[in-house]
Amino acid sequence: MKLINSYNDWDPLRTIAIGDPSLSYGLPEEFQCQVKTVNTCRNGTIINDTDINRAKIQINELSMLLQNDYSINVIRPDLVSHGQSIKTPFWDIPNTNENSCPRDVFNIIGNTILEAPVSWRCRYFESLAYKSPLMELWKCDKSASWIHPPKQSLKDDLYNYNFPIDLSKRKPFVDRYEYSLNEYEPVFDAADILRCGKDLFVQKGYTTNDMGIDWIDREFSQKGFRVHRMLFENNFSPTHSDAQLTFLRPGLILSCPDRPIHTKLMKQIKDDENDWEIIEAPRPSTNKMPPNCHSSPWLSINILSIDENTVIVEKKEKELINLLSNEHGFNVIPLNFRDAYMFGGGFHCQTLDINRDGNNKSYFPLFDRMSDK
Question: Which terminus of the chain is more solvent-facing, meaning fewer CB atoms within 10 Å of its CB: N or C?
């Protein structure tokens, strides 16, 4: 019986993991956090219960909707206190952060659980919150595998300390697609991998380096996948792929107009032979994020698909809801989720689809022809 099976974001959803912001702490003052927050870290202070409880109400509403209305199996992480310090032979930090976003530390590619070698030191052990429930599924599904790249050391050598914390000084770096990571060892966040059947689109950016993409290519090309290195224009601050690009269903992509895909890959995806349509997302309902939220306003497009016709969208994103429902025929479920934003993501980030109907197939005839050469 297949318990771990997912090749894209739109096949009918059967099992999903949903995060939990309980016992969260603020970000410690490590370099990667400072690049993300432009030196406005919360300095390791515990996040107040009011903010956590507001987020939990909305996260629990999502969980209940999926379970009660769609009979989807929902698994939740173990509770982990993030007030403990970490010390390795190479570095130490006073606390960790949170474990609300399983999509950042795990990806399900076919029947493989891919555990990511994250580049933030405060996320070093974050995957442990999900180990027990995923291990139970892995033990029962004899066809499943669980892999992790070479264990990351996160030494200072990994970080490009020349990269400016000041946003106003980043343009020369961004123009040449240089970010806060060096090529010391392979690192990536799992949310930088977008799955579309046989094709995996992986962003090079602030949390994923070229070595990380090379490791993904070496590992998954042997399993019949094609890996595409993805660059986004105007990439001035860390944002995962799924808040810049969303594969809605076969033939249709939702894109952030502020950060379009680099021209070469864009042309290939839109090639007549592939025949995919890329639509620009409307502006978010507001650019003002909730207090202490360091994520992009483009969490507006960080949506969750139940199947290729049914999507969950933040309730305040009226223009996006109208675009998807009235112009593209989706059944849109509006849910409140902005109180959960401060814990690192929207519906897609704070979930991890573990089992969807469907199997591995190609949605890109051009890439089929290119790979046959």
Answer: C
